[in-house]
Amino acid sequence: MDASVENGAAGLLVVEMEGGESVLAASGALVDYVGELRVKQAREGVLRSVANARHRERTPVRVTADAATTVRFGPGHRGSVVAADLGENSVAATRESFVAATDDVRVGADRVGDAPARGSGLFLTTVAGDGTVYLAGRGRVERVTVPEGDERVVAAANVVAFDADADVSVERVGATEDAAPACRIRGPARVWTATRPAPAAGN
User: CA 109, CA 98: separation in Å to the nearest integer?
Assistant: First the structure.
């Protein structure tokens, strides 16, 4: 299997698959393909245990090629797609940031913050295993390393993903109840941020 990310803000992931190979993808991320393909609900359907009913479209599907096939995936918004190698570090991605992952990973769900459905936190897609996850964000996506002992505060609407074992909390920036939420990320950690905010980070 060979995967490549198109440059720029096109937000497309192109995967060349041989017969029998498969990837996990967010439902609705499949753009088009040339070849023979099967799409089935993945066993990794635990996203439903965290996200409420109106978010089930993000539950992953397993996309399997029956013959040599070229598949294109894209996020549900305009922006760039980046690859994140996992290895020993699992990644927690905001719900709409997860696009796809290689077949040798496990996909689950989590949340950070007190009330993600009311904008006081984030629903997360967790990805672990010896593989690669493809993430999307609005605008340009950047990876930042937070050294041990340091902190980085990122507007929740601009968070794409972070190391799943990172110490992360969600707080309001400002004294008013409608102040925008932000994530405080304590190192050591990697965090991926987008230069453009998502319109509703907590939902």
Answer: 11
